[in-house]
């Protein structure tokens, strides 16, 4: 048996509860991970609220990333062994002592990082790499605007975009958060409570790429902030998925509006992302060129408090659960 955190019913953080379940068994191509730390992410809160159902055959427990040791390997796994220290992208089930996941979605703990830091990597780095670089096609010299610059996604996107030669702009909601964004490599951090990011970016010639998780009225404003032939990549909708938008501007200025979510993608697609991360990003982590930004740690049993902190938006960087 293992300790887990279940979602009792759709609702606020208080619906998270401690329970016991059977330890799962790895299937073909899977490993069983003995979890040391689990990352806390916005999709976990959406699932808890009843707004983000897990994929078929995935665990109904929240938790999309974790770190720990390989406890068992299923048939067909020959590149990982019991005892290997890894971090892993999970289809669900991270708020527990054990979870199963495809071996191809595991990556080694980068040299110089501990398991706590490694738990913060998979969901964030998979999301940023696939949306900013694969889907968004960010190139050196381009102007990149990242909303939510002080979030786990934002702090990762700023560092990677800066390393690969982009001019980075970020929005955040306080002076402290803006200062952290500039420390991480943003050329300009915009306090959205005091400044209009549209005006700032238009004065610079417009953004070539925008990464947005806000949605709502930001969608129309993002279009205004884009340079001609710019790209908008949407990864979440904290302010809602609907907007009144004049698509004539999209056509005449040759703009691209796209987006994705990570969890519903195929195992093969996620494995391909993992392969590119191992090749192009993991050496940067081992060399200390980029690093996860840590906010706070909570015991597994205090997952509700971790969710409350995340939803208050007072955090900078990643929140983890110690299992």
TrEMBL record:
Q: Which Gene3D superfamilies match?
A: Medium-chain alcohol dehydrogenases, catalytic domain, NAD(P)-binding Rossmann-like Domain
Q: Name one GO molecular function term.
A: oxidoreductase activity, acting on NAD(P)H
Question: Which keywords does UniProt give here?
Answer: NADP, Oxidoreductase
Pfam families in the record: ADH_N (PF08240), ADH_zinc_N (PF00107)
Taking every annotated instance into account, which residue ranges of this chain make up the domain Enoyl reductase (ER)?
11-321
What PANTHER family does the entry give?
A: OS02G0805600 PROTEIN (PTHR48106:SF8), QUINONE OXIDOREDUCTASE PIG3-RELATED (PTHR48106)
Q: NCBIfam families annotated for this entry?
A: quinone_pig3
Record's protein name:
NADPH2:quinone reductase
């Amino acid at each position: 048996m293992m300790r887990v955190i279940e979602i009792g019913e759709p609702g606020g953080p208080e619906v998270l509860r401690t329970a016991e379940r059977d330890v799962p068994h790895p299937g073909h191509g899977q490993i069983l991970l003995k979890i040391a730390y689990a990352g806390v992410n916005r999709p976990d809160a959406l699932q808890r609220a009843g707004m983000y159902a897990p994929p078929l055959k995935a665990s109904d427990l929240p938790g999309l990333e974790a770190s720990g040791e390989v406890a068992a390997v299923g048939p067909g796994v020959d590149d990982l062994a019991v005892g290997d220290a890894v971090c892993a992208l999970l289809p669900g089930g991270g708020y527990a002592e054990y979870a199963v996941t495809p071996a191809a979605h595991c990556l080694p703990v980068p040299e110089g990082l501990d398991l706590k830091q490694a738990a913060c990597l998979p969901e964030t780095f998979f999301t940023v790499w696939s949306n900013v670089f694969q889907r968004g096609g960010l190139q050196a010299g381009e102007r990149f605007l990242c909303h939510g610059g002080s979030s786990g996604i934002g702090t990762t996107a700023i560092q990677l975009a800066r390393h690969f030669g982009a001019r980075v702009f970020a929005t955040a909601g306080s002076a402290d958060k803006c200062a952290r964004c500039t420390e991480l490599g943003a050329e300009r951090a915009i306090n959205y409570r005091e400044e209009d990011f549209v005006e700032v970016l238009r004065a610079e010639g417009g953004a070539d790429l925008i990464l947005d998780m806000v949605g709502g009225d930001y969608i129309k404003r993002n279009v205004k902030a884009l340079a001609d032939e710019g790209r908008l990549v949407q990864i979440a909708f904290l302010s809602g998925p609907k907007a009144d938008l004049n698509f004539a501007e999209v056509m005449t200025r040759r703009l691209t509006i796209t987006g994705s979510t990570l969890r519903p993608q195929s195992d093969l697609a996620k494995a391909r992302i993992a392969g590119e991360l191992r090749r192009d990003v993991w050496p940067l982590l081992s060399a200390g060129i980029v690093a996860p930004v840590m906010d706070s740690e909570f015991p597994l049993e205090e997952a509700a408090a971790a969710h409350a902190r995340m939803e208050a938006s007072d955090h900078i960087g990643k929140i983890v659960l110690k299992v």
